[in-house]
Design a protein that fits this description.
- The protein is α/β, with parallel strands linked by helices and about 230 residues long.
- Helix 8 links the parallel strand 4 and strand 5.
- The protein is globular and about 55 Å long.
Length: about 230
Amino acid sequence: MGIKAILTDIEGTTTSLSFVKDVLFPYADQYMHEFVVAHRTDPAVAKLVDDVRMEVGKPNLSLLEAIAQLREWIAEDKKITPLKAIQGLMWEEGYRKGAFTGHVYEDAVRNLRLWHQQGLSLFVYSSGSVHAQKLLFGYSDAGDMTPLFSGYFDTHIGHKREAQAYQRIVVEVGLPADNILFLSDIREELDAARQAGLKTCCLVRENQPTDGLQHPWVTSFDTIDTSRV
């Protein structure tokens, strides 16, 4: 039957690593204290602060200690669910204020639109929260791209380097695994997806080495041929 759906990573695949590391992360770090203190009584933020306490096993962690922990996780680039959720809420404010727009490579924009027109179902899987994913594509440099996508997945469905996560995604997508193409720049993610039966393709965006790479690879979405994967 060939490829019927495409599951794509964001950072390093559709979007420059520098946008995430040099724009989004510093923004969250700079305004974390201000945001959490200002919204500490909001139910969503209060719950996420409690989730931080649970994550570190310290139910009596103060608000300021929780903020310090969140900033430490940012510095360590931790993929921890409550951090990603709070970052998503913060980035929403940033997008709405016009502090930045979501970077998406032109070749990704072009081909995501083409694949959508061709009837392929498009999905996103990123360690960033689903909320953050929708914001990036909703406020992208190319305008609102969210109508292109049929669904979004984050770490709630599992870790990106574990085959079980992709098995769960296959169930959610509702297609045989080998009808789904996964795009990423991370070998371990591609390995896990292939173990789950998905087709894979590595995006080599920023001169990462390809020695020993066991997956087809391209430098641009323009050279992905879904009929030959």
